[in-house]
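lol forgot to send this yesterday, sorry. struct tokens for the thing we talked abt
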């Protein structure tokens, strides 16, 4: 457990498109100030607040919204070493432990030091063009290299630590973190990885006459994906706007230097409890169970 009152400068950030999120964030901030903590509230897209997080003006970021909000908060906070506590205002919230009506009790535990920090691996993804780094992303869930608007499979070559792994002919290829193993990779038939691992998961999407199995790489391995571009091929990270790839592009993926820190109040078994609840809530499972 952490020492009591470890967090004294807190920013509470709300998703700008979630109804009542900002009002709830102000209530959370007021509660913390009432307990002697410096706290401010604002929107997750507030440029001034975001700059202050990067300047390390805060030692905790509380994010209000759903799992998408947690991804955005992670992109902001992880490179600065700022832990993230999520309060769920969405529907399920796989990444979020605290529900909307529970945050007062959770914050009381936080102030008493009754919590733990859970470290999640991130991917460092770099796009190289003509041998030069063009763009770099810190990724929480996954990077997807896939077809664009044309309903045609893409051809991709994947190299692990410089050695050819395989050639894919598929709708796309997902490179996921353990956190992302329960997101798009799970929907594509990949395995579920415990969140504390630091392995990259490769999952082809709708493979056609090529390797159709997911691959879990050894810890520390790096992946290079080379798209053979004869029609539109794109890359998208954590569901962000896709970027068109060009012939000769290479995408380097490896464990990032930054880790995302989640504030947790339950033990590691919480991950499996949430996973079970998620599976039980799936319409197909409910139909079978009924």
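and heres what i got for the seq, position by position
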């Amino acid at each position: 457990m952490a020492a009591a009152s470890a967090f004294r400068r807190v920013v509470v950030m709300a998703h700008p498109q979630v109804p009542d999120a900002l009002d709830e964030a102000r209530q959370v901030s007021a509660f913390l100030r009432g307990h002697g903590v410096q706290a401010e509230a604002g929107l997750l897209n507030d440029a001034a607040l975001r700059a202050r997080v990067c300047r390390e003006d805060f030692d905790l970021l509380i994010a209000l919204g759903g799992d998408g909000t947690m991804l955005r908060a992670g992109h902001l906070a992880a490179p600065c070493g700022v832990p993230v506590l999520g309060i769920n205002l969405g529907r399920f919230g796989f990444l979020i432990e605290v529900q909307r009506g529970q945050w007062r009790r959770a914050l009381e535990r936080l102030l008493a030091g009754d919590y733990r920090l859970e470290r999640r691996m991130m991917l460092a993804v770099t796009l190289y063009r003509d041998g030069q780094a063009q763009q770099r992303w810190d990724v929480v869930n996954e990077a997807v290299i896939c077809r664009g608007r044309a309903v045609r499979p893409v051809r991709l070559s994947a190299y692990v630590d410089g050695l050819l792994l395989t050639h894919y002919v598929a709708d796309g290829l997902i490179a996921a973190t353990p956190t992302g193993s329960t997101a798009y990779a799970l929907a594509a038939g990949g395995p579920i990885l415990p969140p504390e691992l630091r392995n990259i998961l490769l999952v082809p999407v709708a493979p056609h006459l090529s390797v159709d199995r997911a691959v879990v790489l050894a810890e520390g391995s790096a992946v290079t994906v080379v798209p053979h571009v004869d029609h539109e091929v794109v890359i998208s990270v954590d569901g962000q706007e896709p970027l068109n790839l060009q012939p000769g592009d290479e995408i380097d993926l490896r464990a990032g230097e930054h880790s995302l820190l989640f504030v947790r109040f339950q033990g590691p078994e919480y991950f499996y409890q949430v996973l079970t609840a998620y599976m039980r809530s799936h319409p197909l499972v409910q139909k079978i169970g009924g």
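The domain at 9-115+265-289 is CATH 3.40.50.10330 (Rossmann fold). anyway ping me if u want another try
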